[in-house]
Amino acid sequence: MSLRLERADKADIPKLVDLYFETFKSPLVLRVKPDVPPVREWYKKSLESDIEKPYSRIYKVVEGQAEPEQASDEIIAFGKWSSPHTEPPQDKPTEFPADGDAALFEEVVGKATEKKKKIMGEEEYWYLGVLATLPKHQRRGAGSLLMTEFCKQADEAGHRSYVEASPHGKPTYQRFAFEMRDTFSVVIDGEPYVDCCMVREPQRPL
Predict the structure, then answer these.
(1) Pairing of β 56-64 and β 2-7
(2) What is the mean pLDDT of the segment spanning 119-135?
(3) In the Cβ-directed half-sphere of 155, how many Cα atoms lie within 13 Å?
């Protein structure tokens, strides 16, 4: 069946949550965001908040018939990114669920934020937050559809792009002209877990 790229809507969020937890199985994700109902609910609320923000873009890749909105359609991948913006202050941040590792979550967010500030400074940039494809549908081009759309939007705006990639995901981003600029790490069960800080320059049409 054909693959289609579409903008996700709020009704898709439960399926996106399922897809996220089925896809991400790294030691970091399993420790910080274990697949249990309270953490799923926290992530669901996070997506519901993001999808309402004018600078947030959530896209899905659907496998199904050529006609849209077929009942048999399956969401096999999704991506979430944001255009340049100033984050408004939150009166009350969403509380991280007790079932997750809040301390490790804060450590990762702190280190990621510090590296991003060091690399990108005060310039405007596009941020790629999630790129997920169901394991059984990987290597079929779903990730490339999402990355092509992301790069198209960033290139049209003329801004650089930023992503934090796992070592496993790093080659995917390199294929789309991302370059590694730095790394940060946390220790999980006595072993270092490394994330790659990657930047992509806007590409000009030939």
Answers:
(1) antiparallel
(2) 95
(3) 13
Phi, psi of 185 (to 5 degrees): -145, 155
The SS3 call for residue 184 is: strand
Question: What is the CATH superfamily name and number for domain 2-82+101-200?
Answer: Gcn5-related N-acetyltransferase (GNAT) (3.40.630.30)
Token couple for 182: 């730095």
pTM: 0.89
- Amino acid of residue 98: A
Domain boundary assignment for the chain = 2-82+101-200
Q: What digits encode the pLDDT tens for the residues 132-153?
A: 999 999 989 999 999 999 999 9
Q: What is the pLDDT of residue 90?
A: 55
Rounding to the nearest 10 degrees, give the CA dihedral for residues 108, 109, 112, 118. Answer: -130
